[in-house]
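Quick one: co-fold with magnesium ion.
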Amino acid sequence: MSRATTDRTGAVDAGRASGTRRGDRATPDHRSDPTPDPTPERGSTMYQLTDVTKTYRRRGEVVRALDGVTLTIPAGQRVAIQGPTGGGKSTLLQVLGALDRPTSGSVTLAGHDLSTARDRELTAVRARQVGFVFQGFNLVPTLSAVENVETAFAAAGVDATDHRRRSLEALDRVGLAERAGHRPGELSGGQQQRVALARALVTEPAVLLADEPTGSLDEATRDEVMDLLEGVHRERGLTLVVVTHDSAVAARAERRLRLAAGRVTEL
Ligand code: ADP
Ligand code: MG
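Sure, here it is.
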């Protein structure tokens, strides 16, 4: 299946997006546009997971990281996922982010089936629809802040001429315009996380997935990063899924889930 076809499938599911920010783009395959997929309307289904399992084999032993997860996440929802270490939270985010396929069950993202998609399709979905933020920031130490943000375009495989300008705009959005030339080692933890957030957002994903994004930040910096996440959630109608151990972070979400022993419950 060509990417254009799958995009249109997603667009149909996304619903008549007139009036939404990106709904009026007529040419989803335009090479210079890294974000051809319209953002689904708030309330339409962003994710549908049905009886998802993920098993790993470790020294002959089978580990059930996800054990029959059925879950619907509407577009635009702000979801927090809590639960004990080893409960399957990172595994679930990897499945949501098209980094990994489930062992069984089905996962759709805006109507696009991720469980049966081939690697190329998963790569395209990941690059165009999903932004990731991690606890450890995962910045390249030898690159400046703006160069780190620009790596998102290389990952998306998009050949455009305005990467630098858009990366600077993304840094400006997170309040770091004047630090664009600094390397990660010259930035505080909160500033590094803001660079990582700019990198996740610069390709204008429909979904932002964050795995313990405030886990290595102090409380004041944590609140700043959460304010930013919530600000972009509001502005862009993003679907936001945040894994957190911090109940102050979870309390800010619209919906709270607990994931333990590979099973999800609503809190
Ligand atoms: P959490 O993020 O909630 O701490 P994870 O999703 O990282 O949980 O892990 C869930 C379970 O799956 C754990 O038992 C973990 O050891 C196991 N697991 C995760 N990734 C792998 C892997 N690549 N290989 C083997 N086991 C894994
Ligand atoms: Mg984890």
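If it helps, The chain has one domain: 3-8+45-266.
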